[in-house]
Q: What sequence folds into this?
C-alpha cells in the first residue's frame, strides 16, 4: 500500500516495479477483450481536473470503471474554485464527502504535495504544473518494457521543452532509478544546465543529432507555449533544429522507439512520417495509460 | 522615575570597544553611568550576571503592515515581536496601503507608534510615488516628516534615470537610499532560487544574477551621485564581492543580510512550503558561505530581519500564489548566535556590532551606544540559553516562520527602551 501517488522522485524502485508488473495483468488479452476486475467495487474516486486534459482524465475514468469503482469528475470551470474558493477549502469540502481517493491535475507545481500535508484522503497526482506527471512516466516505462527486455543500460533521449515539462521530470526520475543513460535536448533556454543535476545519469546535449545517436528510445515533447510567459526562443526555427524527422531515425538504433505523451503537434515538434511510422509507439502509450492507472488505483485503494 | 541599575553583566559596547563586567546606571530615560560596582541607595536592580549587556538592537528592515493590512500585523504587534527579539528600534518599510510616500502617512505611522509601540519605530519613505518606479516621491518633505531613509522595497526602482535622480536628492537631504536589488525582467515569475532544486521541483527560478545586475548598476550610480546607498537583504556572492569592492574604493555604501539567508539554503527548504518563500529567495550553499564570510570579514554592516508578516490564509495556497516573505524578529539574534558565534566565526563584539553600530551608521541613526547621556535602550543577551522557537507563541499577528520548532543556543532575554523593561523572556 502506498499513501497516494504524488510523484516518481520519492517512489522506491520496488514500488515502480510492482506497479509495472501489475499493469501487465490489465493490458488487453489476445482477442482485445479485458479480464473483469472488481477491486474497487464500492469505492469512489474524485477526478479533480483543474487544467484541460483529454487523455489523462479519460484514462483515469476508464481505469476506475474497469475496476468496478465510481469516478466523479470535477473540472475547473464547474467547481467552486471558479467562485473564488481557495484550493484548500475546495479539497476539504471534497474530502468531507469521504471519497476514497482524489486524482488531481493542477497548473501549480506542488499543489498536490501542499494539499497532501493537510488532507488524509490519498491524492494521486495527474500532473502538477511543470513538476511531475507520475502516471505518464509509469505508462511510458510500461510501453518501453513491452518491447525491451529491461530498462537497464538503455539510452533514452528526451527532446523539446524540458524546462516546462512534467512528463520529462517524471521520466527522468523513473529512468534514473533503473540506470538509464538519459540525454536531455532542446533549445538552450528550455534546457537549463541545472537539469543535469536533478538525478543521476542525466546529460545535456544541444545538438539533436548527437543526442539521438545510438538511442534506444526517443521521447518527443510538445512545445508548451501556454507555459512560456515570455518568448524564450525563436519559434520560427524550432522544427529545423529540434523537430523529429525521418533522417534522425537513421542515427538511432535500428529498433528505436519513438514516443510522445501527446497531444502531438504535427510539423512543430514531430513530422507526420515519423509519428505514423513503424517506430512510433504513441498509441500504445495511450493504451497502456489505462492499464497503468488501474494498477496505481488498485495499489492506492485496493 | 526612579533609578535602575543593570548589575554584573558583561557590557559589550562596539561604539567604545568596551568589553568588561560593569554596571549600568539608568535614571529616567537616560544612561547615567557605565562602570564597575555602582551602588545607589534606593535604586532598583536588574541582575544581569552571566548575561551580555548590549546597546539596544536596531532592525533596519521590517514590514509592519499598518496602515492597510492590520490583520497581518499592526505597529503595536510588530513592536512587541521586535522587543521579544531584543530590538529597541525598528525601521519600517513603506509598502503599506497606502504606500508611505507622503508626510501624511509618515505622520500617521509615527503617531500610531507613539500611542502603541513598545519600541522606537522609524518610518522609511518611498523613493517613488506609490513605489511605482516612475515619479519621485516628495523626498525632502518625507525627510522633514521624519523618515530615516528611502526605499521602494519589494518594488525595485527599475528605471536607472529615476534611481539616479533619487540618489541626487537623497544625498542633498542626507538620506540613505535603500534598494531591493532585483532586475524584474530576469526574475519574472520566479518563486525560488534558480538552481538544481528549482529544476527538480518544477518551479520557476529567480537567478542570482537578477540581484547582481541591479547591485552593479546602483553602485555605479552611487559613485557618480555620492549618495549613501544601502543594499537591502543582500543574498548572493557576486553582490557581496561588489559591495566589498565599492567599500574598498571609499564609497559610502552599506549592506544588510537577513538571518534566514545566513542559515538556510534552497535545498534546505521544505518543497512547496510557503514559510520558505521570500525575496530574495534562499540561495545555494556557495552564496550562503559568501554571506557568512562577508559578515566575518566586515563587509556586512548589519543583520536585518526583513520581518514580513502574512496571514495564514495567504500562505495556505498553491506555492506560486503565496506572497513572498517570512517573519523574523524573534529569531534573528538566535540565528546569528547559531550560525556565526558558536561555530567561532565571529566574536561577541562583532555580533553586537551587527545589530547596533552597524545599522545605526548605515542610516545615520543617533543610537547604538552605551554611554552617559544616551537613551537607555539596552538589550540583554544570554549566549548559552538553549531554547526552541514555537511560532504559536509569537507576539506577531502572523506565523510564517521557517524556524518554527528549531532549537537554538543563544537568545535575547530582556529588552529595555528608554529605561523601561518592555520585554523579558519567561521560558527556557
A:
Amino acid at each position: 500500500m502506498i499513501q497516494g501517488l504524488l510523484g516518481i522522485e520519492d517512489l522506491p524502485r520496488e514500488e515502480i516495479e510492482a506497479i509495472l508488473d501489475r499493469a501487465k495483468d490489465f493490458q488487453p488479452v489476445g482477442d482485445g477483450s479485458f479480464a473483469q476486475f472488481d477491486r474497487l467495487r464500492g469505492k469512489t474516486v474524485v477526478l479533480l481536473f483543474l487544467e484541460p486534459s483529454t487523455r489523462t482524465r479519460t484514462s483515469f475514468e476508464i481505469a476506475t470503471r474497469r475496476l468496478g469503482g465510481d469516478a466523479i469528475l470535477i473540472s475547473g470551470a464547474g467547481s467552486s474554485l471558479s467562485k473564488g474558493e481557495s484550493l484548500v477549502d475546495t479539497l476539504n469540502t471534497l474530502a468531507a464527502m469521504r471519497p476514497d481517493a482524489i486524482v488531481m491535475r493542477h497548473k501549480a507545481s506542488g499543489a498536490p504535495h501542499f494539499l497532501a500535508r493537510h488532507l488524509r484522503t490519498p491524492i494521486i497526482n495527474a500532473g502538477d504544473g511543470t513538476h511531475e506527471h507520475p502516471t505518464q512516466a509509469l505508462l511510458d516505462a510500461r510501453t518501453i518494457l513491452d518491447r525491451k527486455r529491461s530498462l537497464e543500460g538503455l539510452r533514452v533521449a528526451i527532446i523539446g521543452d524540458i524546462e516546462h515539462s512534467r512528463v520529462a521530470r517524471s521520466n527522468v526520475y523513473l529512468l534514473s532509478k533503473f540506470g538509464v543513460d538519459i540525454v536531455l535536448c532542446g533549445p538552450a533556454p528550455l534546457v537549463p544546465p541545472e537539469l543535469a543535476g536533478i538525478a543521476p545519469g542525466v546529460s545535456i546535449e544541444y545538438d539533436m543529432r548527437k543526442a539521438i545517436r545510438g538511442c534506444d528510445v526517443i521521447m518527443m515533447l510538445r512545445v508548451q507555449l501556454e507555459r512560456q510567459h515570455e518568448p524564450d526562443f525563436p519559434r520560427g526555427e524550432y522544427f529545423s533544429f529540434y523537430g523529429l524527422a525521418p533522417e534522425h531515425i537513421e542515427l538511432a538504433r535500428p529498433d528505436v522507439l519513438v514516443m510522445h505523451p501527446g497531444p502531438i503537434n504535427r510539423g512543430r515538434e514531430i513530422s507526420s512520417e515519423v509519428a505514423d511510422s513503424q517506430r512510433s509507439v504513441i498509441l500504445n502509450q495511450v493504451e497502456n495509460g489505462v492499464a497503468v492507472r488501474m494498477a496505481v488505483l488498485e495499489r492506492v485503494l485496493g | 522615575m526612579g533609578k535602575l541599575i543593570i548589575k554584573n553583566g558583561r557590557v559589550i559596547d562596539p561604539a567604545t570597544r568596551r568589553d568588561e563586567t560593569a554596571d549600568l546606571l539608568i535614571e529616567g530615560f537616560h544612561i547615567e553611568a557605565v562602570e564597575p560596582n555602582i551602588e545607589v541607595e534606593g535604586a532598583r536592580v536588574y541582575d544581569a550576571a552571566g548575561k551580555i549587556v548590549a546597546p539596544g538592537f536596531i532592525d533596519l528592515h521590517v514590514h509592519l503592515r499598518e496602515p492597510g493590512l492590520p490583520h497581518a500585523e499592526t505597529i503595536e504587534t510588530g513592536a512587541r515581536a521586535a522587543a521579544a527579539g531584543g530590538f529597541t528600534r525598528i525601521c519600517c518599510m513603506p509598502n503599506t496601503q497606502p504606500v508611505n510616500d507622503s508626510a501624511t502617512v509618515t505622520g500617521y505611522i509615527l503617531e500610531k507608534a507613539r500611542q502603541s509601540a513598545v519600541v522606537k519605530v522609524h518610518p522609511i519613505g518611498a523613493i517613488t510615488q506609490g513605489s511605482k518606479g516612475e515619479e519621485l516621491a516628495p523626498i525632502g518633505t518625507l525627510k522633514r516628516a521624519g523618515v530615516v531613509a528611502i526605499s521602494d522595497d519589494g518594488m525595485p526602482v527599475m528605471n536607472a534615470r529615476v534611481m539616479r535622480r533619487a540618489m541626487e536628492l537623497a544625498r542633498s537631504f542626507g538620506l540613505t537610499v535603500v534598494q531591493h536589488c532585483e532586475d524584474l525582467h530576469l526574475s519574472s515569475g520566479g518563486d525560488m532560487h534558480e538552481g538544481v532544486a528549482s529544476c527538480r521541483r518544477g518551479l520557476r527560478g529567480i537567478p542570482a544574477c537578477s540581484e547582481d545586475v541591479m547591485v552593479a548598476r546602483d553602485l555605479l550610480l552611487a559613485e557618480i551621485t555620492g549618495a549613501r546607498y544601502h543594499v537591502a537583504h543582500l543574498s548572493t556572492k557576486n553582490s557581496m564581492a561588489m559591495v566589498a569592492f565599492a567599500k574598498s574604493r571609499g564609497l559610502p555604501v552599506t549592506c544588510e543580510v537577513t538571518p534566514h539567508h545566513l542559515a538556510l539554503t534552497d535545498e534546505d527548504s521544505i518543497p512547496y512550503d510557503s514559510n520558505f518563500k521570500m525575496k530574495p529567495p534562499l540561495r545555494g550553499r556557495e552564496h550562503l558561505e559568501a554571506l557568512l564570510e562577508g559578515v566575518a570579514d566586515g563587509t556586512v554592516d548589519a543583520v536585518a530581519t526583513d520581518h514580513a508578516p502574512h496571514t495564514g490564509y495567504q500562505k495556505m495556497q498553491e506555492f506560486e500564489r503565496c506572497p513572498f516573505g517570512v517573519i523574523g524578529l524573534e529569531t534573528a539574534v538566535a540565528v546569528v548566535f547559531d550560525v556565526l558565534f558558536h561555530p567561532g566565526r565571529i566574536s561577541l563584539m562583532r555580533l553586537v556590532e551587527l545589530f547596533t553600530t552597524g545599522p545605526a551608521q548605515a542610516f545615520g541613526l543617533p543610537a547604538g551606544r552605551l554611554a552617559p547621556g544616551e537613551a537607555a535602550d539596552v538589550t540583554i543577551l544570554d549566549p548559552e540559553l538553549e531554547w526552541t522557537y514555537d511560532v504559536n507563541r509569537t507576539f506577531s499577528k502572523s506565523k510564517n516562520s521557517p524556524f518554527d520548532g528549531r532549537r537554538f543556543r543563544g537568545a535575547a532575554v530582556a529588552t529595555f527602551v528608554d529605561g523601561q523593561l518592555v520585554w523579558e523572556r519567561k521560558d527556557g
